[in-house]
Design brief:
This protein has 527 residues and is α+β, with helices and mostly antiparallel strands. 70% of the residues lie in helices and 8% in strands. It has 13 helices and 7 strands. A hairpin with a 2-residue loop joins strand 4 and strand 5. The two termini are 92 Å apart.
Length: 527
């Protein structure tokens, strides 16, 4: 008795050392073994049913059908010969000729289907009797002239009738045998289907039973202990740090509970440090937000307040040029031209800087935007440049996105005007706007055949005031692509240069699809 008790305790101790992985491996191996056996039985039942069905559909039924076609062909021959022999009219030979062709075709299809000895014997008997009747009656009558055919038919009427009756009986026996074989195959198929259905029913019951056992085993050995451990951990997470975490179930889950309990004991000390860190981060984030706001306000105020004095400088220098142009020496005219050009370029630069600072502040009306319509408006705005340069601009069907229509309009305006401006001198501009959707994100591309951008400048072109050419070669302020980047990033997208595109340039940017995410966050705006 004591030995049995010690053995039982030893078995329980050994099972208690099993980890979740070991329990799962054992359960999965057992389940796979059961499913393999059930799958083999089911596969055998399906194979057996398929074999019988194939035999019935591919051999038994076609053999009977072809035998009946042979009979029909021979009857047509006999009808044609009898009509020709009685009337002497050659048109009665047409059914005979068709019957010969149909007989040959049907026999050619029937021979491969006669696999057993009885079927081959029946077919041989039919062919033998058909050949005798054709040799003795049909062929001589069909080949004789009309008058001789009538006389020959009368002479061989009794013989022909006897031979064709024997042929008809042979064909009837053949068809009876084929019907019997088909009926036997049908019964065998029904038995196989019944066996298959019962087998699948048993398999379904066993699968349900295995599923129930697996579910119960997981509940007791895994989900139950994990649920209790999770409940205790949630209590600790809600502030009940005095809650003890006791582990049950497999050995690794108990070890997990022990580790979580050790972690709980460190939470109190870590919590105070974490709170201090969070407070410091909040203060730094607030400082950074205030700094960004001040920088944006500074850029806006600087560009806005510079407008009036610059406008006066530009106006008076232009007035000076109109009034005294040609009255002073060439150097004076040149200096006045330099002043006017500098004032105009400064005016353009300040306007671009003002537009750049307004992105995300003044224009921040997120709504549904039809990019197809927006692109059409942009092309209308660029119609003069397009006509002067002979540019050809094509585009894929464009979607509807959520964003600010004004900012997205500036995006199209800058990208398309750059594609036209930086054109190759030896060919007219060709620009294509592409759009591809992938996992809730639209990827757009603006591809041109212009002068292109060297790989080392692919990142530099998106930096504010960065120019790759002199103002005499290509006018501009170096803000366009920087503004494009700011607009795209404001709409939670990305923008870059495709390094694989040559010749020309392909600018690729992404925008979230309409309805793919929550509404874009409303950002603080400035007047």
């Amino acid at each position: 008795m004591q030995t049995a008790t010690r053995t039982e305790s030893s078995d329980k101790g050994a099972l208690s050392d099993w980890t979740t992985r070991r329990w799962l491996r054992t359960g999965v191996a057992t389940t796979l073994a059961v499913l393999a056996v059930l799958g083999s039985l089911g596969g055998w039942a399906m194979w057996r049913t398929s074999q019988i069905t194939s035999e019935l559909v591919d051999r038994r039924s076609p053999a009977l059908i072809e035998a009946m076609r042979v009979e029909q062909a021979l009857v047509n021959q006999e009808t044609g010969i009898r009509g020709y022999g009685l009337s002497g009219r050659s048109d009665f030979l047409q059914p005979y000729a068709r019957g010969l062709a149909d007989e040959k075709a049907a026999l050619r299809r029937l021979r491969p289907l006669a696999e057993d000895d009885r079927a081959r014997a029946d077919l041989a008997e039919v062919e033998r009797l058909a050949g005798t009747w054709q040799r003795r009656v049909a062929r001589p009558v069909s080949q004789a002239p009309a008058q001789e055919a009538v006389k020959l038919t009368a002479e061989r009427a009794a013989e022909g009738k006897a031979e064709f009756d024997a042929l008809r009986r042979a064909m009837t026996r053949q068809q009876d045998h084929l019907r019997i074989e088909r009926a036997a195959s049908t019964r065998t198929l029904k038995r196989a289907e019944t066996l298959r259905n019962w087998m699948f029913a048993v398999i379904a019951v066993l699968i349900v039973l295995v599923a129930v056992l697996i579910s119960e085993g997981l509940r007791r050995g895994v989900t139950g202990p994990l649920t209790r451990l999770g409940s205790a951990a949630r209590d600790v997470a809600q502030g009940r740090f005095d809650r003890s975490l006791a582990g049950t179930g497999p050995a690794d889950l108990r070890q997990l509970a022990h580790d979580v309990e050790a972690m709980r004991q460190r939470l109190v000390a870590e919590l105070e440090f974490s709170e201090r860190t969070r407070t410091l981060l909040d203060e730094q984030a607030e400082d950074l937000k205030r700094s960004n706001t001040e920088l944006e306000q500074f850029a806006y105020v600087a560009s806005h307040d510079l407008q009036e004095p610059l406008r006066k400088v530009s106006s008076f220098t232009q007035l000076l040029q109109r009034r005294y142009g040609g009255q002073l020496d060439a150097k004076a005219d040149q200096y006045i031209a330099f002043a006017v050009d500098g004032a105009n370029r400064m005016q353009t630069l300040i306007n671009d800087l003002l537009a750049f600072s307004r992105v995300g502040r003044v224009h921040n009306d997120h709504q549904t935007v039809d990019l197809e319509s927006l692109l059409s408006k942009t092309l209308d705005n660029l119609s003069v440049s397009i006509e002067e340069t002979g540019a050809e601009i094509t585009h894929d069907p464009l979607p509807t996105v959520v964003g600010d229509a004004t900012q997205l309009g500036m995006l199209w305006q800058n990208l398309l005007s750059n594609a036209i401006k930086f054109r190759s001198p030896d060919r007219p501009p060709r620009v294509h706007v592409g759009a591809v959707s992938d996992a809730g994100v639209w990827t757009f591309s603006v591809t041109d055949n212009g002068i292109g951008i060297a790989p080392e400048f692919h990142e530099k072109v998106f930096v504010l005031f960065q120019r790759l050419h002199t103002k005499d070669a290509y006018p501009g302020t170096g803000i366009g692509l920087a503004m494009c980047k700011k607009v795209v990033e404001f709409h939670d997208g990305t923008i870059g240069i495709d390094p694989e595109r040559t010749p020309g340039t392909r600018v690729v940017f992404t925008l979230p699809a309409a309805g793919s995410s929550s509404e874009a966050p409303q950002r603080e705006t400035q007047p």
